[in-house]
Amino acid sequence: MRGLILVTGASSSPGFKTLARLRELGYDVLGVYNQHPVDGSVRWDLTNPTGLLDQYKPSAVVHMAAMGDVDGCEDDVESCYRVNAVATRDVARWCLRAGARLFYLSTDYVFRGDRGLYGEADAPRPINYYGLTKLLGEESVLAVDGVVVRVAWIYGFGPGRQNFGRTVVEKLSRGEEVKAIVDQWGSPTLNTLIAEMITKLLPINYSGVLHAAGPRLSRYEFALAIAKAFNFPTELVKPISISQLSFKAPRPRDSSLDSSRAVKILGIPVNDINYTLAIFKKEWESFKYASH
């Protein structure tokens, strides 16, 4: 793909990884952030999302900027709507006018979560405000023939909010117990593979929704898999029920995604937990070395 690729949300975990991977591959790429500066990136004003697009005129936009605090979205619905729905709508309209391609990172939380292993053709039905605003963003992207990449339970090393996978590794490495929910299921997705899948999507002619997430696991199963892969004592992982926790926003009970189409199209076994945790473990070794 020729021309500039603009990556929004460059200070997020998947945004940072995607920006770095595109640079490694020699793309002309610019990262933009809202609050947390990233080297080689510029600030994006969410009150004027198209101003920066007019300035740099990218040939493709990878839109990863979002208000992702699920409970925070319930507390500040106005900001959540402005960031996840309105800004995405404005970016989509700009891409339509400019003839630019648009790739949008979305979420499993667009689903109700009453059965799991959702496919791309299944009808969304969000049960919290975060999921609703992300679905509104999806609709804007699909209206301009963009690509909606749904992922779930993003984990890995890098900047951005702390995530469950990283917390599990850090706690177990210190010999601390990890409490993990046994009765909520999702599809843990490694940030490194999100970046890899985006780069694979760029040169191919694909539009519409694509599920690109990990395998169906409960948080307890995921924590146990990490313990085994990293050779930590599995007895440190303790099961708890979701009913023992209190959340502002309701959570889907089983919002796992069927990513078989992405595996076939992109050739990346994102739904193979052994494959993804081998990468995660290698990154942990590098992270430990760099932090000492």
Automatic annotation (TrEMBL):
Gene3D superfamilies recorded: NAD(P)-binding Rossmann-like Domain, UDP-galactose 4-epimerase, domain 1
Gene Ontology process terms (BP): dTDP-rhamnose biosynthetic process
Example of a GO cellular component annotation carried by this entry: cytosol
GO molecular function, one term: dTDP-4-dehydrorhamnose reductase activity
Occurrences of domain RmlD-like substrate binding (ranges): 5-278
Matching Pfam families: RmlD_sub_bind
PANTHER family hit by this protein: DTDP-4-DEHYDRORHAMNOSE REDUCTASE (PTHR10491), METHIONINE ADENOSYLTRANSFERASE 2 SUBUNIT BETA (PTHR10491:SF4)
Protein name, UniProt field: NAD(P)-dependent oxidoreductase
